[in-house]
Amino acid sequence: MPREFQFQVSPEVAANESMLIQHVAKLFQVNPKEIQKVDVLKRSIDARQRSIKMNIKANVFLVGEPYTETKIELPDYPNVSNAQEVIVVGAGPAGLFAALQLIELGLKPIVLERGKDVRGRRRDLKAINRDGTVNPESNYCFGEGGAGTYSDGKLYTRSKKRGDVDRILRLLVAYGATPEIMVEAHPHIGTNKLPQIIQDIREKIIACGGQVLFDTKVTDILIKNNEVEGVVTQNGDKILANKLILATGHSARDIFELLYHKKIEIEAKPFALGVRAEHPQSLIDSIQYSCDFRGDYLPPAPYSIVKQVNGRGMYSFCMCPGGVIAPCATAEGEVVTNGWSPSKRDQATANSGIVVELRLEDFKPFAKFGPLAGMEFQKDIEQRAWRLAGKTQQVPAQRMIDFSQNKVSSEIPKTSYVPGTTSVELGEVFPGFLTQTMRQGFQEFGKSMKGYFTNEAILHAPESRTSSPVRIPRDPISLEHTQIKGLYPCGEGAGYAGGIISAAIDGEKCAIKIAEAIGS
């Protein structure tokens, strides 16, 4: 029987299989030749001391003990060409994993995606970066794979349901992700590798008899006697089914407006909003690793920080080591920032959203919009930033200390944000309470991370699409909308997830509930 061990080693030992076996042999007090395999289950960095260690959890197999390398395979999906149909609106992680789960359960998904396929999106991403041209149907937020495809591919989640998380990770490995995502404490696929995985998922859905339709924007939901009958697309086509998973993501404002105007119950939801801060990666490494050079065996350092400032939470969000900042507007007349990292995380800069929690009372100036008040608050800031930066996809920017001192930066160095920046006093972008909280908060951050509070750091505004400003209410047991039978609000856009993994889990949960409802 293998022995499960937890131990610490240096980063160099963790990266070298032969050295790892020698270390374990000392723990076992055996000859290294007696060890057949050290099967690493989990790996994380402990940087609390000056001498950085890697935490390892592993199964150790001695020579002669049965060991078979685990091969992760896809489920045995049935062909569902002639099965009952379920409409899935949105081809982000919630929608795609809902579709896969529906197929497993013998149902036929019809996935409707307003944007382009994962490869076709690239031309539109190039246009927004190079020309400042926003395609409202195809951008960093809309298109196959959703917002996560080209804005990082982080797989970390705080979900307590580890079994569900591991299932999603295993499926991603089966579709081509590196098995390392099953091991790392903060797994990450990378924007350069995720598109192929997304494409393979789509091809499997189609091969099993499901449908995936691109450039297919839902403009109406057909409802009779408070029951779903189907949807209408932008071309006037009707697609009929009495089960609908609504997985449109946190930026599909037209869907929120559609529900509101059809008097389908929705509610304003608190979210967080702030800036995206960029530091030299070497500076973050020196802070986090307490060294001048991190060496060859440590990854670019991430950071996570939370403070209470003026009674509000201010925290880092979607931190991207060795990454870049991207333009994520979904309409003309607004600017939005986000960040991503390639799989190697080998860029010279580190960036993170630094955001402040908002409350429903903060949206009072937009009360006339009812449950869309938070969305209008969000839009107002994005549009103001667009105007202040020159009405292009350049964003307002300011050095961190200058911002805290209410001082316009005399010049902004070139950052990773390709469309460029305009020097603006960011207090002009945000409401006073947000500005005051961030000015004080950055100084507090600097007390916890010595060197973080610096004018080498450039703040880009705004980081505003952290989560949905709207929640679409659903029954906690059936997951069906509280008012409309057959409507299943799902994922980030509905207010029930916050990232690739949690959205995928929620998609699967909705698919399971639909299968139960059909079978009952």
Automatic annotation (TrEMBL):
Question: GO MF terms on file?
Answer: oxidoreductase activity
Q: Where is the signal peptide?
A: none
Q: Which residues form the FAD/NAD(P)-binding domain?
A: 85-254
Q: Which domain of life is it from?
A: Bacteria
Question: Pfam families, per this entry?
Answer: FAD-depend_C (PF21688), Pyr_redox_2 (PF07992)
Q: Where is the FAD-dependent protein C-terminal domain?
A: 270-466
Q: Which residues cross the membrane?
A: none
Q: Which PANTHER family match?
A: FAD/NAD(P)-BINDING OXIDOREDUCTASE (PTHR42842), FAD_NAD(P)-BINDING OXIDOREDUCTASE FAMILY PROTEIN (PTHR42842:SF3)
Q: What protein is this chain from?
A: Uncharacterized protein
Source organism phylogeny: Bacteria, Pseudomonadati, Bacteroidota, Flavobacteriia, Flavobacteriales
